[in-house]
Specification:
The protein has 261 residues and is α/β, with parallel strands linked by helices. It has a single domain (4-135, 183-252), classed as 3-Layer(aba) Sandwich (Rossmann fold). 35% of the residues lie in helices and 15% in strands. It has an 8-stranded mixed β-sheet, with helices on both faces. Helix 2 (70-81) crosses helix 3. The longest helix is centred in the middle third of the chain and has 19 residues, at 162-180. The radius of gyration is 17 Å and the shape is globular. The two termini are 23 Å apart.
Length: 261
């Protein structure tokens, strides 16, 4: 995803928009980067500025130490993103990104900072439910690559290139360790609405697991099931963006002001 990298490289704005009424911070799946959201700014309302989070260990930050513990990530992420989380803003995350977005929203609340206007979670069961996916972060190299093939999401040309795999494996293992070792902590529910998205043929994220996100908000909840498997984020991209656009319009209609930089 080309664009303006800011916040010491943590954030990428493909189309900086000084007149935006709403900013959407986007968090990718394990191993993904800002490129997962390439082109989104063109297909969402013009009053929405898309700001993709680029974590250490990927893309232009490939040589930086990745985070393997979510609680270590949150304060650094919070410091980098603080200037971009002045109201109004929303959060979107897919798979691991949904977990980060959720815990980031809790961190913002717990540190007395502005809440998001909406939390969009995609391709992940509610965090209070037990882990139901294979634990992969500490598998031997051959088994690790096999699991990546089965999970999808990692381009096959990367998986078959030993040189590239040596570069990206530390970041991939760190992401899966962050996922595998996550432990939900009880706490107050969020004040913002939550919308959950899932793929109808995702083998690990079923409708019941998505519906359980409703228990994490004291506001409204919406569930949207999309055609495709775990990576419907790409295969059903147009349908997903139409759903997002509708909710973003509603969010702006109920109180989004022009972002002041």
């Amino acid at each position: 995803m080309s664009g303006v990298a800011e916040g010491n490289g943590w954030l990428v704005r493909a189309q900086p928009n000084p007149s935006a009424r709403l900013r959407m911070l986007c968090f990718a799946y394990a191993g993904g980067g800002s490129s997962a959201f390439a082109g989104w700014a063109h297909d969402l309302p013009q009053d929405v500025e898309v700001c993709a989070v680029r974590l250490p260990g990927r893309e232009s930050r490939i040589l930086q130490q990745p985070y393997a513990d979510l609680q270590e990530l949150l304060p650094d992420l919070g410091d980098a993103a603080a200037p971009y989380c002045a109201e109004p803003f929303v959060l979107f995350g897919h798979s691991m990104g949904a977990l980060i977005a959720f815990e980031y929203a809790r961190w913002l609340r717990d540190t007395g900072r502005p809440d998001p206007r909406h939390l969009f979670v995609s391709g992940r069961r509610a965090p209070q439910l037990p882990h139901n996916r294979p634990l992969v972060h500490d598998l031997p190299a051959e088994d690790f690559v096999k699991q990546l093939w089965e999970l999808g999401g990692t381009p096959k040309e990367l998986l078959t290139d030993p040189r590239v795999m040596r570069m990206v494996t530390p970041g991939l293992r760190a992401d899966f360790q962050l996922n595998d070792t996550y432990r939900y902590r009880r706490g107050p529910v969020l004040g913002c609405p939550i919308s959950a998205f899932g793929g109808r043929t995702d083998p690990h994220v079923d409708q019941a697991g998505l519906t359980a996100w409703a228990h994490q908000s004291q506001s409204s909840f919406a569930l949207h099931m999309m055609d495709g498997g775990h990576f419907f984020l790409h295969s059903a991209r147009d349908a997903l963006l139409r759903k997002l656009a509708g909710t973003l319009w509603q969010t702006m209609a109920t109180g989004g002001e022009t972002i002041v930089r």
